[in-house]
Each structure stands twice: as structure tokens, then as C-alpha cells.
Design a protein that fits this description.
alpha+beta, 6-stranded mixed sheet, 5-stranded mixed sheet, globular
Length: 367
């Protein structure tokens, strides 16, 4: 009987991981479809309210695509795993002002028609509402082999960043950076981030990062998925292509990083590169395109870091508090449910790394 129960739990996490990967691919599918039709994208942009904005930016946009993806993740995972209902948190408010002046909370309906009826009220465009409703109720397929891990979903909560680097998503295009394989701006910097963490300890335990616009072929984009999980020394990570060799002495930064941090890292022999999107910069660490991502400011949030931190932990790296590291305490970021950007901010900054020796070298320079 005991072995039977353990087998059920192992099957559960395999099913859960597969479900998270598939819903991330559905999200990527929605994001790509919207970019392919300019009339759709132009309809979907809404200015965020003052209390929703990231204060680093004069203008911060909320797209219906963001909210739609978030609600798809909540709906699909909540339907499959009822013990997660109420424990799936996202960046975006799902409130929208309709053309008739009323405010509604966008959710995924029980049928395609119900979802369409909500979307047409918000957009006032039947063609767009029909296209989006069909995508929301479609299925995604990914060829995967899922390993075993004894972890039950009733211990978990989830953070979602439905479309990270929204400004890049809206603007489009791509500009290749000075390092092969890495981009500084554009659609390749857009990511869908889903991270599961332990409700009591706050430790990230499973992450799926989907890069919807990884590679362009003529008029279409293809994506890439990276995932990892780990608990009690059972660690697994996966990239859908061979892992790249780690670039020596290269650190990715935000364009707003302080001159002092840049100066100290440069003096220590590190080369610096700036790139858009917190999720993308963290992804570059996991792909070993860079040695680390350093951020001294409180400009990332739980939804940005939870998923990729789980992946880095599974690879032997991690994400730690910048301020604590400079005081000599290596403290991994931890998570909880929260509402509003202030409650969910990584207030002490961060250092993300794939190799502990690199972390120690960077901390010594910044101290």
C-alpha cells in the first residue's frame, strides 16, 4: 500500500510538470498569434493605472494578451489541480473597462462562447474576440519525456508572469547583442514565466520558462522551453537543446544599473552587457550565455524570479539577495502570496548565478 501511494505522488508531479509546460506553450501560442496580426495587437494595449505601474518606466502597458495568458494559466491548472485554486498568483489585474463604461473581471469561460462574449465587450471587435477565444480554448502539444519527483501539488503555490518584457512585445523586432546568441532588445527578450514554490517555506521548487520568440524563420517564430525542479536532493533541469558553455567573465545588467556597480565589476575583469526583460536576463544565466545577472535595485518582483530560480537551483546555481550578499549573508530569494507590486517586490535586489565561485567573486568585488 505504501509503495502504491508513493507511485501516485510521483505520477502526480509528472502530470503537473507536463501540464505547466503545456499551458506555457499555449501562452506562447497566444503571444505569437497576436504578434502575427497587427490589428489584434493594436486593439490589445491598455495603459496601466498609476498604482499598477513599474515606477522605473514613465509609461507601463498592460495588454489584454498579458491578462488573457494569466487567466488561461489559472484556468487550466486550476481545473486539473483543484488544490491549487486560490494559490495561483499573477502580475496583472484582470479588471478591464468595457466600451459601455462598465468594468468587468476577465476570466476564462466554461465554453469558447462565454469567453468570446467577455472579449467582445472589452474589445468591441467580433473578429478579434473570436480569434482570441478560439486560442484560449485550444490545446498545445510538446514532445516531452517527464522524469519522476515525489512532490505533491497540495504543498504548492504559483507565480505567473504571463508576458515578461511587455514593451519589447509591443514594439517587436530584434537587435542582436555583442555576444553570439544573446539579444539586447526585441521579441527574443519576451518570456512566459511560471514558478511553483512551497507554501510554507517559500522555496521555489519548479519552474518553466517559455521563450515564444526564440528563432525566426521567414514570417514565423519558434520558441524554446526550459524547465527545472528540485527538492530533497532530487534535482532535474532540462533545456530543449544542448546546454551552451558558460561565457567567462560576462555579467548581464539592467540599463538603469548604477555607475558604481558597473565600475566595480569592470575593475574586476568582468565584461558587461545590458539586455531587456528580467526574465530574459535570468534565462541567459540559466543558458550559461552569461556568468551572472546583477541588479542592485528593487525593480523585480516575485513573478519575475520564482520560476527561473527553481531552474537555477536545479542546475546548482541560484538567485540571492543583493543587499544581504554584500553584508556577507548569502540568502536565496523566498516567496509568498501577495497583492500589489510593493508587497511582491524583491526589495533587496538580486544576484543570479549558475556557479557558486562566480557568485563569491562578484560579491567580493561589490563589497
Amino acid at each position: 500500500m505504501k509503495k502504491y501511494v508513493v507511485d501516485i505522488v510521483i505520477q502526480l508531479i509528472g502530470h503537473f510538470l507536463r501540464s505547466v509546460i503545456l499551458v506555457s506553450e499555449k501562452a506562447a501560442k497566444i503571444a505569437r498569434a497576436i504578434r502575427q496580426e497587427e490589428h489584434l495587437l493594436s486593439l490589445l494595449v491598455r495603459e496601466k493605472k498609476e498604482d499598477e505601474k513599474n515606477q522605473r518606466f514613465a509609461h507601463d502597458f498592460k495588454t489584454l494578451a498579458d491578462v488573457l495568458v494569466q487567466e488561461v494559466v489559472k484556468h487550466d491548472l486550476g481545473s486539473e489541480f483543484p488544490d491549487l485554486v486560490g494559490h495561483i498568483c499573477g502580475e496583472e489585474s484582470n479588471e478591464f473597462s468595457c466600451l459601455d463604461g462598465e468594468t468587468i473581471c476577465l476570466t476564462v469561460g466554461g465554453t469558447e462562447e462565454e469567453t468570446y462574449n467577455q472579449l467582445v465587450r472589452i474589445l468591441g471587435n467580433e473578429r478579434a474576440a473570436c480569434t482570441l477565444a478560439h486560442l484560449v480554448h485550444s490545446t498545445a502539444e510538446v514532445d516531452l519525456v517527464i522524469p519522476s519527483c515525489s512532490l505533491s501539488t497540495d504543498e504548492l503555490a504559483i507565480w505567473i508572469d504571463p508576458i515578461d518584457a511587455t514593451a519589447e512585445y509591443i514594439t517587436g523586432g530584434s537587435v542582436e547583442g555583442e555576444v553570439a546568441g544573446m539579444f539586447r532588445t526585441g521579441l527574443p527578450c519576451v518570456t512566459v514565466l511560471i514558478g511553483a514554490f512551497h507554501r510554507l517555506s517559500g522555496t521555489p521548487v519548479l519552474g518553466v520558462i517559455n521563450q515564444p520568440f526564440c528563432q525566426q524563420f521567414s514570417d514565423r517564430w519558434e520558441g524554446k522551453i526550459l524547465w527545472g525542479f528540485g527538492r530533497e536532493n532530487n534535482l532535474t533541469s532540462h533545456i530543449l537543446e544542448p546546454s551552451l558553455p558558460q561565457t567567462n567573465k560576462l555579467v548581464v545588467l539592467s540599463c538603469s544599473e548604477s555607475a558604481e556597480v558597473k565600475s566595480r565589476l569592470t575593475a574586476g575583469g568582468f565584461k558587461l552587457i545590458e539586455a531587456a526583460g528580467a526574465g530574459y536576463k535570468l534565462l541567459c544565466v540559466a543558458l550559461r550565455l552569461v556568468s551572472a545577472y546583477v541588479l542592485s535595485k528593487p525593480s523585480t518582483y516575485y513573478w519575475d524570479t520564482c520560476g527561473i530560480q527553481a531552474v537555477l537551483l536545479a542546475m546548482g546555481g541560484g538567485v540571492v539577495s543583493y543587499s544581504d550578499a554584500l553584508r556577507g549573508e548569502i540568502i536565496p530569494l523566498a516567496y509568498q502570496k501577495g497583492k500589489g507590486t510593493e508587497q511582491c517586490c524583491n526589495e533587496s535586489g538580486l544576484i543570479a548565478y549558475s556557479d557558486r565561485a562566480v557568485l563569491e567573486e562578484i560579491v567580493m568585488l561589490l563589497k
